[in-house]
Amino acid sequence: MAALGPLSRITRLGCNFCRNHRLVFNRNSQKRGIASCIDPSYGLTDEQKEFQKVAFDFAANEMAPHMAEWDQKEVFPVETMRKAAQLGFGGIYTRPEVGGSGLSRLDTSIIFEALSTGCVSTTAYISIHNMCAWMIDTFGNDEQRERFCPDLCSMEKFASYCLTEPGSGSDAASLLTSAQRKGDHYVLNGSKAFISGGGDTDVYVVMCRTGGKGPKGISCLVVEKGTPGLSFGKKEKKVGWNSQPTRAVIFEDCSVPATNRLGEEGQGFNIAMKGLNGGRINIASCSLGAAHASVLLARDHLLVRKQFGETLANNQFLQFKLAEMATKLVASRLLVREAATALQENRADAVSLCSMAKLFVTDECFNVCNQALQMHGGYGYLKDYAVQQFVRDIRVHQILEGTNEVMRMIISRNLLTES
Amino acid sequence: MSGRVLVGVKRVIDYAVKIRVKPDNTGVVTDGVKHSMNPFCEIAVEEAVKLKEKKLVKEVVAVSCGPQQSQETIRTALAMGADRGIHVEVSGKDYETLGPLQVSKIMAALAKKEDAQIIILGKQAIDDDCNQTGQMTAALLDWPQGTFASEVTLDGDKIKVVREIDGGLETIKINTPAVLTADLRLNTPRYATLPNIMKAKKKKIANVKPADLGVNLTSKLEVLRVEDPPQRQAGMKVETVEDLVGKLKESGKV
Fold it and tell me: How would residue B17 be classed by pLDDT, with cut points 50, 70 and 90?
């Protein structure tokens, strides 16, 4: 009962009172999946429940208390992420021989969903970092795996994924950054846009053109920070995702050893897309965590806020709205977990399912968070309350890692190409 | 000297859950409610694992008394670094009346059976707040006890314990074998790492029945009624000190 006291006092006084109590109250209700229809531990194995518990604990203790500060001060929380890496979160689905945890895509989804309740932006960056580590682990040769992966899994070094350019977003295969072969080096020229972590990270997985037009002319090169000719644009000012810096990555006669190429020339686009399949599940999982936290926040608010002589929880419209939010959350969760399983098993429907999951879940979870904000009334618009940060942070999930429009392209192509 | 540490871990309702009293006032609602390891037990496990990492003890055995679900709590202890577990099966009516006296009899029997050198328990459980099991276990074994420990140092065959007491901090030196109970500031429990959680799957949990240990579980305590605490009453403002003293006298507080 103690946790509800301060908030009801606030609503009675109608002012910003007991700020610390309010933030603690918000944190407490984000903490645990309280047993109810939206408990995210249903249907999991005992081992998965343990993974989830560690991730929830870490999110509640190490991330949630700092979530607002990291957003407002635009802090890239290196120390916290390294603590996460010590628990094995730096390379969750990277192989153990090179320092990864060797878990499944489903285990990964469960972990990111839980971490996201602590801070969406930081968890989303950790998921991008994981994607890069996996790409090097899967498509690199043994020398490259041993050179890059251990430092990435421990987060001694951080990674960025570089595909998008100012002139090629959804039309990724039309990218222009060129990599000309000169002896045992490639010389890169061009620029990448909107790179998460850009400028602060150490290892850049870059898709660039070594051959002719289209996807088959693209290769994948690993470029290290400090390489002459590698520079960065200004740090972008964003609506959310503020705990990770976003910058343009610029190549000016940047010379990269050919031994940094992952796979064969012309394989780069394929590598990029394979990375994104998992990335889409991870981003959808981050949206799930935000929606879960937001539903709990909304629920707690409804139980406390009184208008017209009774708590909002007695209002049938709000009861029904909350029920719809919970239903969409659980439906989303099931879709993401099925997509993760399909990807793990390399099923024929894996790519479509990953696209469907990303499309459906990022849209629905944004609506859930947005409705949770609405239920808070005016308080929902204040930065003292966490719900607005969840809304701002997951808005971009409908755009990156392939816009939701591109997801529709992938799915319709699957339907209409089969005759 | 076996170098073996027994750590008791209790499965309780998670500390962040809002407790609800059952409509028939016989207890609190536990069905479908999130449970986890008692926070003081986590601190006890952490201390035991730390001693093993310093090579001051050889083996950490996690013990839990309760129904099937208690095994989850033992697995958490294994994921934190305990070597093996012992699940003492207690369910149904026996579990409802399981209290510090019964658990301390079990711990004492296990300590003899496993030739334990140190028993570490949490100072109290957050569901019943009894703060008795450690003390009772020590009495049954006739072992010294270091309760409310905020610092533990092994020194040959003795243990130096700094205890948090009402007056401040008390330092005692006790012989082993001994019982310790962990207080809040003893340490900060580690997160289980993903690799350790996976390794924990392979660690063994033995199943034991109280009867095998020769322990009688009957309790002489009977819970009559469980109620919510009274609603907080509004306070009142007074104008002068005389008014305040008058009101205090009226309500019989002075």
Answer: confident
What pLDDT, on the 0 to 100 scale, is given for residue A419? 58
- Considering chain A, what percentage of its residues have pLDDT values greater than 90? 90
Q: Which of these three, A265, A282, A307, is where a domain ends?
A: A265
- Please check whether residues A413 and A328 belong to one and the same domain: yes
B119 Rama sector, left if φ>0, alpha if ψ -120 to 50, beta otherwise: beta
Residues of A in contact with B79 (CB under 8 A): 50
The whole-number pLDDT of residue A4 equals 39
Chain A residues within 8 Å of chain B (Cβ atoms)? 1, 3, 5, 28, 31-35, 39, 46-47, 49-51, 53-54, 57-58, 86-89, 92, 96, 101, 103
Task: Please give the model's pTM, rounded to 2 decimal places.
Answer: 0.88
- Judge whether A244 and A124 are in contact, CB under 8 Å: yes
Listed in sequence order, the residues at least 6 apart from A171 whose beta carbon sits closer than 8 Å to its beta carbon are none
Element (H, E) at A254: strand A246-257
The answer on A399 and A326 residing in a single domain is yes
Give CA–CA dist A265/A281, Å, rounded. Answer: 27
CB contact under 8 A, A50 and B79: yes
- What does the alpha-carbon distance between residue A297 and residue A300 come to, in Å, rounded to a whole number? 5
Residues in chain B: 254
A74 catalytic per annotation: no
Phi-psi region of A192 (alpha: psi -120 to 50; beta: other; left: phi over 0): beta
CATH code of the domain in which B47 resides: 3.40.50.620
**Using an 8 Å Cβ cutoff, are A373 and A381 in contact?**
yes
Separation of alpha carbons A352 and A355, rounded Å: 5
